[in-house]
Amino acid sequence: MVSWLALGWAGAQTIxxxxxxxxxxTLDIHQINTGRGNxxxxxxxxxxxxxxxxxxxxxxxxxxxxxxxDDSHSAGEVIARYIRRFHPKAESAVLDYALLTHxxxxxxGDVTAASKPSSLGPxxxxxxxxxxxxxxxxxxxxxGWPTYDYPAPLQGxxxxxxxxxxxxxxxxxxxxxxxxxxxxxxQIRLVNSPAKYADFEVRIVMANGEVWTGVASDTRHHFxxxxxxxxxxxxxxxxxxxxxxxxxxxxxxxxxxxxxxxxEPGAPAWHDVETPVAKAVGPVxxxxxxxxxxxxxxxxxxxxxxxxxxWILPVWDSAHPTPSVYNRLRSTRTYPGPRDLFxxxxxxxxxxxxxxxxxxxxxxxxxLVRVSPGGGDYRVIILDDSAEINKVKAVxxxxxxx
Length: 402
Known about the structure:
Layout: E1 27-31, E2 40-43, E3 49-52, H1 75-86, E4 94-99, H2 105-108, H3 128-134, E5 136-142, H4 157-172, E6 176-179, E7 200-207, E8 210-212, E9 219-221, E10 243-248, E11 251-255, H5 274-281, E12 286-288, H6 300-306, E13 310-313, H7 323-330, E14 340-343, H8 348-353, E15 366-371, E16 377-383, E17 392-400
Parallel strand pairs: 3-4, 4-5, 5-6, 11-12, 12-13, 13-14
Antiparallel strand pairs: 1-2, 1-15, 2-3, 7-8, 7-10, 8-9, 10-11, 15-16, 16-17
Helix pairs in contact: 1-3, 5-6
């Protein structure tokens, strides 16, 4: 295991000072807080980059927190500016990969009457399309390409705009677009020095109800054929979410979009996607909260199977997370041992309805999981989100990997 002392200044975070830059061999997982949706920026050990989601809610209500750092920039622009600050090649930043877990505005960007037109092509700027206005994307990955017809044709202004964006980008910028394929570990790979980091892997775990079994690249279809479903049982967008497990040495991380694990009363058992996913993924060091902690997520089997030391909670709504989910996350009856919960943006109303939220490790800020070279340990770093200088607010760890 490489010690943090060996990292030099990249591993020497100082509270109140700017974040030390990424250095080769380090894995950085940034959960960006815009107050408008999910966005994670990953820098792999060789400097390859991945953006997971680029949420931009269209209309703010009293359920939502205020935009971060303020409302002077849209969420897509804030995400792009964040990427350029922390990209290994800031002056010529390009995203090697961008992945949409599913097609909801808080993960890809709502298109509204206020959405600005692109300066590049015949589409509007919202979430992922606005990120690409400032930072080019080499490969775009989603669950629907090229037909966007499962479990039914995906329509509406947001999807029409996204498809116009893909068409222009592929024809004029050379962007590649791929449908995510569960079981595969070669759709997202190191592009700079793959041989140097043979113990690094991104495994696509699920998409559209097809789930990796955990054996080789084998998968099984958790959802029955559409022809065998009752119309009112067809899966909604959330259970169709795509997700992945990232591994680096002894470090494992899971990101599952908005998959659900607790079906509504009377719904078929296969609406529980978390259980088959958990069987394949197994224990991890860090996990992103599924579906922002809504009442239909984080079932007991999922928690016990993954049993992470660190939970990342991308939250901005008064129901993020619901009290029942929070209690399961904290309970040592679900799995033994310590665990810390880091929240991007706790809504003030949630403190009233969910007792004990003052026990979380962090309630506000960008969250960075910084993994040491070789994956032997990691730290969790909270960055100030009140301005775009991103000073270090707090550091926890190092935590050794299993």
